[in-house]
């Protein structure tokens, strides 16, 4: 598995970041610098490979460190040496010759194949594959790596690699075909993946199965291509029929459909959902999430409730926080604030604990729906759980409680804001003093004094009106005293 290509000095000196800057298509490889808990021995070896000027210097540098290595050590070093492929290969040879009696693990060999392939060093990659073949170490995992590297390379031909598998004693069966399809789809080569199926069937006898079509439909989803997704779905129905266990395929297909054209996507997806139900098949959680989001965007509550009842009530799906939030937003935005608290109760029942985002969502809709009793209860629950209202809710809650003369809750909101430094303190403080001034002047003075002590600025208008009220009370007291004396 010799490598006859000399490394250019510029490439040897350039950092991985510099290479990616020159060529954005160069992948970002993991490095030992990103692994803080790496054993000292492994870190030293990785540093040697990163610093050597050429592959020819690796042996001397490693011998100088006088470190013995095990098979596990070799695997760890290789995992963090993708950015230095030639040095990694030299280390692999050095470790085999000096310490392992040339008995590397299959995983180490596969790592070398992957390192070379990911760096587009295909000639030495194939030489390594040949060496593995001679030692009977090849596996489908090896060719999965080869397919992936070729698919990601401009002009790479992973289908040819698939067709050449018998040269290396490997079978071109359905799992191998699926590995090829997966590599092509991950590289956004959906058309090539579809074209590979008839070739593999005709020339290699490899027939696609349900997993094959699931892979293609996942590729359609990644490409956001509903037209091709419909074609693949029809091909799948003809080739393998309907299988209740093929949830990933149906999940990707319906997610692709429901996430496409907003004007037609939702009705079409619901028709396909009904069609699958007739064949006792169903998509999964991914579609349910996307369909709920589509109902929210279309503001279609009835359809969302039917979908929720089917997946959650009938099929037993446990919703996550995002799903609950979608239903809360849909119900709340359509003015059904009275029912959204039920979702909080349901979340607790299913072991999904709402965070500050969910609580703030519920509080906002309750306040805007003027459900102040329920809003007060939710606010108290938030404070108890140390989850604070956001700026919009602080301002809205304070205003609404004060406007309805619920002084106790208004002051409770203010105290929460002050104690936890929640904005908008200045605006809300002025509001509090102004609202209390006419009905609860002593408390208005008390909170005004506290705000000044805390450095919260009261406007000149607020202070002036407060002063006028105090002067008015003082005059009334003088008049009352004079009346008392004259009588």
TrEMBL record:
Keywords, alphabetical: Repeat, Transit peptide
Chain intervals with Basic and acidic residues compositional bias: 1-10
Transit peptide is among the record's keywords: yes
Record bears the keyword ATP-binding: no
Residue numbers spanned by region Disordered: 1-30
Superkingdom of origin organism: Eukaryota
InterPro entries: Mito_RNA-Proc/Resp (IPR051240), PPR_rpt (IPR002885), TPR-like_helical_dom_sf (IPR011990)
PPR repeats, residue ranges: 355-389
GO MF, one annotated term: mRNA binding
Protein name in the entry: Pentatricopeptide repeat-containing protein
Native species: Panicum miliaceum
